[in-house]
């Protein structure tokens, strides 16, 4: 089990460092070039009650009077020490905001991730085994349609049908109105999770299903499958006893590598369902020009996606001995 | 059958009873709605509930109380203060506060807390403008002195809008866990979702009827859907949705000074630029004849009916119906005949027969800009352009992507702006030539020495009451002023009605004329709300 060797760790750490540096420089540059003036966004309709002198005071509170490069280096210096600064709009440390919001998002993302992964895999294998059949066609049409459906639209449709018309699911939020998250029962939380998680997973299913289908078809046409057929094994038998093991690996990799899309999807889904997670905070930070928070979330999402890919890499080695042995032999 | 026999009858009955009780507790929750009120009125203060950063400047700070208040007729009444007076030189306010006020943690509220609140708000750099205050000082246990750096009759509005925080309990996390002497105290705030408040047992005033308030911070569509599903008791909706009906709820439109108007550059374009390089002036709108004709030609009632679905009223000034509004601002509009005459008298004639008037070779043509995402502003601009075509003025309409784009053009184009506040300082910022071109203040570079004189006199007045007359005179003194009879640097169009749906059983009393703001103003009299079966 020598997957995680020192050189592997060093390489990955270096790559993470490089990614984070580039991401923060790029994000900072983009945000500085953004046409949104955070002070204007903050003052908003109070414009006429606030004197020019007071505006200057707000600018100073946020340190915006300094030139952009200087602000970047101040931010960077603090960031290295683990201080991502104070969110302008939430008036709280960025790390606290991200922490609180991420816990809420985690519920949503985790359930959507498990659902879409499991369902997508099963659908993909079923479609691939029965290539060309009616089942295959239905699954394919479903996947193609869903793959091109924007998640906010999907969310609105589900909301209109299940919450407004049928009244089965809640309209919004992570807990019922008047109930604080600490007092909410597990059932209440799950009840509020159903629609946003369904939105995310219904769409996430498509990619996994299509990918798995292709791999299953390859596996069903492979020599070992042919050998199994020759021994009198049925199609289903070959698929579940032989092909699945070979198909599972790319599916798992894809699933972990899709964390970025999951993150992006949750931004839209959270917006639709007023689900107070990290996605909603991202939108607010963007709209109101909250630079520290936006940078913090960008860095966090970079780490998040990186972690997904890293896990996929490691799992590959753990699950498939050939890769591990291959690397060792190459040395 | 054997299973049933093994369970003793008594135990079965008990199980049934427990089951029934469980069902009952589930059924009780709608009845509880009578002392719990759920509101979806938007405007979550991301800054938190810290008055020193600006919380509570609209409506009621809820958790904190203020020295003074405005009642439903916008008269200034006492709250924490029992006496308040301004010195002869207009530079020192002396305020005495009541002795029975306590914060929700049980500690008494003293002059020290008031002085601390004002001094802190002055330096932290939030949305509270105390630039005119030198310092606040407790001169007794219940007496505070406020020293101003210059005379400012609008300073009294800080007494109305700034909630008092406890010196001992105010710190970094105060904004999330406020402690105050207001009618309610916070139970919990989950950012982006909801805020729960309950009645403050230490409140010195009348006990509010509703023991618990739940504010939902969902976006417009979600709030509306929640109201349709019967989940909220009060919901704010855009005017366009107010024509709908929600079962079990009634429409509650509230008049406001949330206004929209056309701002005109009042100086010619001579290629001048501001310090940050923004172009100044417009050769067409610099002519008062153009601006007056537009004011007279526009049919404001039609705008209210057509654009606001009837939920609004015509606007003739920036402060319609407020104590400092001059009734003389109201003009006879929708009068194309008079408008044409004003243009003709001003030398504007259509000599080339293209339907647009000219003067000295200059066509009566300009662009109206607005933020493209604001549909009401867009419709207003389009409707005005249509109305102006009738009198030979060609107004082009252009939506801009952001306020930043508008910022670049605000001194040289006609802009659809919206303001409206319970503080007359707004009038000063909109029209004083001392403010011309500073930020968004007086963006059209309007100058009239007489108006400046009145505005300065209003600021320097001996009291708020004495200042009212000067504010009115700045609008129109019988000869000159900034209203449509005078120099007309603006064409005010409409005041929106803020539209709420409220539960049929809910009585919210008389709502104030609301300022430009998000939902919170309706909570100004929330202590007086009751539930009627």
Protein model, in words:
- The complex is a heterodimer of chains A (331) and B (533).
- Chain A is mostly helical.
- Chain A has helices at residues 6-33, 38-43, 52-61, 68-80, 94-129, 134-147, 151-165, 186-220, 223-230, 235-257, 259-272, 278-287, 291-319, 321-330.
- In chain A, α1 (6-33) runs antiparallel to α13 (291-319) and α8 crosses α10 (235-257).
- The radius of gyration of chain A is 24 Å and the shape is globular.
- The two termini of chain A are 16 Å apart.
- The model of chain A has no long low-confidence stretch (mean pLDDT 85).
- By secondary structure, chain B is an alpha+beta fold.
| Largest interface pair | A-B, 52 and 61 residues
Rounded to the nearest angstrom, the distance between the terminal CA atoms of chain A is 16 Å
Mean pLDDT of chain A: 85
Q: CATH topology of the largest domain in chain B, anyone? A: D-Maltodextrin-Binding Protein, domain 2
Q: How many strands of chain A? A: 0
Taking the sheet with the most strands of chain B, its summary is:
11 strands, mixed
Essential attributes:
heterodimer; A: 331 residues; mainly alpha; 0% strand; globular; B: 533 residues; alpha+beta; D-Maltodextrin-Binding Protein, domain 2; Dipeptide-binding Protein, domain 3; 2 domains; 11-stranded mixed sheet; 4-stranded antiparallel sheet; 26% helix; 22% strand; SBP_5_dom (chain B); ABC transporter substrate-binding protein (chain B); signal (chain B)
Give the SSE layout:
The complex is a heterodimer of chains A (331) and B (533).
Chain A: H1 6-33, H2 38-43, H3 52-61, H4 68-80, H5 94-129, H6 134-147, H7 151-165, H8 186-220, H9 223-230, H10 235-257, H11 259-272, H12 278-287, H13 291-319, H14 321-330
Helix pairs in contact in A: 1-13, 5-6, 5-8, 5-10, 5-11, 5-13, 6-8, 7-8, 7-11, 8-10, 8-11, 9-10, 10-13, 11-12, 12-13, 13-14
Chain B: H1 2-6, H2 9-32, E1 36-40, E2 68-70, E3 76-78, E4 81-86, E5 92-97, H3 111-124, E6 133-138, E7 143-148, H4 156-161, E8 184-190, E9 194-199, E10 212-216, H5 220-228, E11 234-237, E12 249-263, H6 288-297, H7 300-307, E13 312-314, H8 336-345, E14 358-359, E15 362-363, E16 365-371, H9 375-389, E17 394-400, H10 403-409, E18 414-417, H11 425-431, H12 449-459, H13 464-475, E19 490-503, E20 506-507, E21 530-531
Parallel strand pairs in B: 1-10, 1-11, 16-17, 16-18
Antiparallel strand pairs in B: 2-3, 4-5, 5-7, 6-7, 8-9, 9-10, 11-19, 12-18, 12-19, 13-19, 14-15, 20-21
Helix pairs in contact in B: 6-8, 11-12, 12-13
Domain Solute-binding protein family (chain B): 76-433
InterPro entries (chain B): Peptide/Ni-bd, SBP_5, SBP_5_dom
Family (chain B): Belongs to the bacterial solute-binding protein 5 family.
